[in-house]
## 1
Amino acid sequence: MLLHINPSSGVPIYLQIENQVKHYIASGALKPGNALPSVRQVAADLRINPNTVARAYQNLERDGVLQTVQGGRTYVAENPTGLLKAERIRRLLPHARQIAVEGTQLRLDPQEIIDLVRQELNSLEEAHERHGDLVRKAR
Amino acid sequence: MKDMAIWSEKLVKVYSQVRAVDELSLNVPRGGIYGFLGRNGAGKTSTIKILLGLTRPTAGQATVLGFHVGREQVAILERTAYVSENKSLYSNLTARELARFTRGFYPNWSDEAATKYARSFEIPMDRPFSKLSQGNRTKVFLLLALAQGADLLVFDEPATGLDPVGVDEFLRVLAQDVVSEGRTALISSHQLSDVEQVADHVGLIDHGRLLLEARLDDIKSQFRLIIAAGNALPQTKTAEVVSVTSEGNFCKYVVKQNADDFAAELRRQGATVTEVSPLGLREIFLELVRKEEVCTSGNVGGMAAAVSHSI
């Protein structure tokens, strides 16, 4: 897993890690059951605080995205969306609101905003299919 | 406070009428990396000297690793490694000889660690200290501190003279060895980008006073730059609004917390909020230090502020 962080951006480092892991999973680059590098390894590779990496992993675990087995190894959870649908919607709501507000302030009309979101969903889906192909070819 | 690596309550240090440290109350948690930030002359080194017993505080009290500063100084020094701001030694000893000399003072000294860091920092171990470059002198001090097996490592401007490769190696060592082994590091620096990368807590001081102390991620999650356009925008600073800059119909706000509520309030008043964006540590630092200047020097302007810092 290749993580990239920008320490001087205003986005907390633990959030940058969470977002990248989620993106890798959403795009199929990481699959359920795949192992993640240890906290210590990620910290050493990126020259960041192990407490920060641990915080990202804990949050992802709490969200059901990752699971840690006995012995300390961390894996992509088999059922990453184990949360209740209502809870999942509640978590997405602030992002949806943000998109609505930003889009409106940039004077895009509603259809353009929705198209943009759909476009992103499509590209995730394409990435997912590409990774699927790779796996099939490898077999 | 026994559970803190460093704790202080209203520390004061007065040097001939200058309050170098002014009622400083610090909380440095164990098992992390604490970035102790401030510009030159802010009081960082004075604070460190008090904590390590190198100078007495004028008032206040402190503990280091649970031991009382002043009363239990030997216990503190046995468990603390210190790299001072001044990284010179009048010595013709080589790094290897310095390591052999230093190990005698520390029961937890590790020859294995010393060898490891000599290799990873690429230190010329058999050249006299006086013939080393500034960067290599700094590396020798880092090696001597890291190999002591101390519970607390205090680095005062650790990057002095180090090239980017040396800094990167130092950050790797902090990330990989120090915290993972449950040790605590305090890094005093004005190199914000290095600290921003590796610290989990930061304390920001200016004029000897603590302006901000919190988990770095929390600071970044809460501070926001808000730009709004409209008539009769609020111009006053509050506990939450750290700075206000206006230009024509536009206003730039730096908000410490609850930025979304503030933006919502602006919208309710009819303003157009054009931007709500996060800030890096450097920008937050500058905003807070600038705020302090306005508070302490009033309308006298930049000159007075600049003079008082150079003391």
## 2
Amino acid sequence: MSVLWTPSALEDRQRLLDAAFARAMDYEDPAIYRASLEADANMEQEADALNGVATWRQGPLKGTRLYVCRSTRHLLVYTREGNDVRIISLAPAASDWKRST
Amino acid sequence: MMQTVQLATARELAAAGSVHDTLLVGQAGGYAVTFKLGIGERALATKAGATRLFAGLDAAVRVLRRELGINRYHVDASGYSEPEERRRRPDRTAALKQSHEDAAYAEFLREGAAKALADTRPPLSSADAKAHMDDIKARHLAQLDEMMRRKDRKR
């Protein structure tokens, strides 16, 4: 049982942190970044538990699955072979999509 | 209020030759269609049973010709007045907009997933991924600390 992160998915996570970091610097308010750190940690924890998930939703492409994060408004797109999970990308929830693009 | 007849029934009546005359009656905002039948006059109804109002003669004639095969009719435009503003279906407009947005979002997800799947770089284990992200976070936090120290010195 393992969870792997593709570089693309990690870059998605980094993009979120970079954006929060830039906002925190602009507003001179580290609390903005700390909130983002907490969200990332929660997302990481949820992703690491995906290899135990029995039910799943069909992902955007054949062979992919979708997980809606409970702690943040993001979706994880992943594949699964046996008990091996590979997180391939991270996307904002539909409600936040326009704001983030 | 005049009794009404559904389109399907009107079609059967027209096919049976029971429609003696057809009149397009102008009203405020459009035209109603009335039929003279053996049993009296009936107005063409909406699905909900109300008198169906066509925005213009063209629309009414189109239904008469295509749906009912009626090519002879009279027009009484004496009561007609143009609608104050074009009728809209805000519910349908919103639904269509939502539908387009949903499709665009689904495409965005597909593109993102396809791009990620095409990435041939090796994935990182959960522990390595955590270490990688922790490095980034530590770098950011150090810069934020430095920014706050500079801010304090300015005071």
